[in-house]
Design goal:
- By secondary structure, the chain is an alpha+beta fold.
- 25% of the residues lie in helices and 34% in strands.
- The chain has helices spanning 2-18, 30-83, 121-126; strands spanning 91-93, 98-110, 135-141, 155-157, 178-187, 190-199, 209-222, 225-230, 247-251, 253-254, 256-257, 263-264, 267-270, 278-288, 291-301.
- A 6-stranded antiparallel barrel has the order 2-3-6-5-4-7. Strands 10, 13, 14 and 15 form a 4-stranded antiparallel sheet that branches. Strands 11-12 form a two-stranded antiparallel sheet.
- The chain starts with a helix and ends with a strand.
């Protein structure tokens, strides 16, 4: 079509040139100007169609890439926290729009049986963690990765079995098996943990394990945002209190709808059994300017206390 247009322009130019006097000056007529402007407009329109589509495709691809990167980064951040959760401390709230856990920074094994090499009976008795009376001091078997803990910022938990708000026993959220750490003391190559106060733990761990918790962490979807809360008070009520500060993890968060039109919960938790790890399912859908992406991660949680 363009070739025909150029031939038409050539014929017009030739015809008008043949009617000019021999002595006349070279130039163009008004008709030639109008035709040229029309042709240029047509060419620009066609060129715009060829150029705009690739540009629009590039912009759409960049938008989708940003959404996928944001969602993947958010899910991986939640995954890191979940892998460091106190056993049996994960719980879902806000109708599946919130997930909470108690974050671990360290752990080890406590002494339950007297060291046969210890000759001082008082030291031998003090090094044990007792479960028949309240105790605030015991020996740690093996090294601790963190040598010192700030008093009041870390807590020692033993044999946590549930995160159910209706159960008080063996529940770190109720405070029945968790107490603050005062200091880590050393004597030669031996290391001892001193608690803030004497604690009668309800159960002994079959593997003599203790865990050190630094804070509660929650992820909440609210107002089109994925928010991370940390460092708030640990209690039986799931999640942070209204007005607590948070970090923005992701925005443009929308509801998750499957192919059948059913709205899915962003967070789901299967606590598992003593012989099987718990499984956390994380779903995140983001939408921006008509582009929507949905990602899902599943995280195994070790619930052996």
């Amino acid at each position: 079509m363009l070739r025909w247009l150029w031939k038409g322009i050539g014929l017009i130019m030739t015809e008008h040139s043949s009617h000019r006097p021999c002595g006349g000056r070279n130039g163009f007529t008004l008709i030639e100007l109008v035709v040229t402007i029309v042709i240029i407009g047509v060419l620009m329109s066609l060129g715009g169609l060829f150029i705009s589509r690739p540009i629009e495709g590039y912009i759409d691809l960049e938008r989708r890439t940003q959404l996928v990167a944001q969602a993947d980064m958010s899910l991986r951040r939640m995954q890191r926290d979940l892998r460091a959760a106190l056993p049996n401390s994960v719980r879902i709230f806000n109708g599946g729009n919130g997930i909470e856990l108690l974050h671990l920074v360290d752990g080890g094994r406590y002494r339950l049986v007297t060291d046969p090499a210890e000759t001082d009976p008082l030291v031998a008795a003090a090094s044990l963690l007792h479960f028949d009376v309240a105790d605030d001091y015991f020996e740690v078997l093996g090294p601790l990765e963190t040598a010192e803990y700030t008093p009041g910022n870390c807590r020692c938990a033993i044999y946590n079995l549930t995160a159910d708000a209706a159960i008080d026993s063996a529940n770190a959220y109720s405070g029945s098996n968790i107490v603050g750490i005062n200091a880590v003391e050393t004597s030669g190559s031996r290391r001892f943990l001193r608690l803030d106060s004497a604690m009668l733990f309800p159960f002994s761990s079959p593997q003599q394990r203790f865990f050190i918790v630094d804070e509660a962490i929650s992820y909440v979807i609210s107002g089109g945002e994925l928010r991370r809360y940390a460092g708030y008070a640990i209690n039986q009520t799931p999640g942070p209190a209204a007005g607590d500060p948070y970090d923005l993890v992701a925005e443009n968060v929308v509801s998750i709808v499957d192919a059948g039109g059913t709205v899915l919960d962003p967070f789901d938790y299967d606590a598992g059994t003593p012989s099987r790890s718990g499984l956390v399912t994380l779903r995140l859908a983001l939408e921006l300017q008509g582009e929507r992406i949905t990602l899902m991660h599943q995280v195994h949680v070790d619930n052996v206390p």
